Amino acid sequence: MTEKAKLKQLACPPECGFMVRSHDEKEIVEIALQHAKKIHKMEISKD
Ligand SMILES: [Zn+2]
Fold this sequence. Notes:
- The structure is a single chain.
- This protein is an alpha+beta fold and about 45 residues long.
- The protein is about 30% helix and about 15% strand.
- It has one helix spanning about 25-40, and strands spanning about 10, 20.
- It is elongated, with a radius of gyration of 12 Å.
- Zinc ion binds near residues 12 and 40.
- Zinc ion binds near residues 12, 16, 18 and 39.
C-alpha cells in the first residue's frame, strides 16, 4: 500500500456542509448516494 494514492473527495454545497474524502472512489460514491437519499431525499447517478 502506498501513501501516495490519490485522495478523492466529493462535497455538497456549503449550505449542506457534507463532505466525503477517501482513496476509494467506490466508497465515496456509496456514501454520497446514501447521503443524497437520506438528507436530500433524492437519487443521484453514479457518474
Ligand atoms: Zn448534502
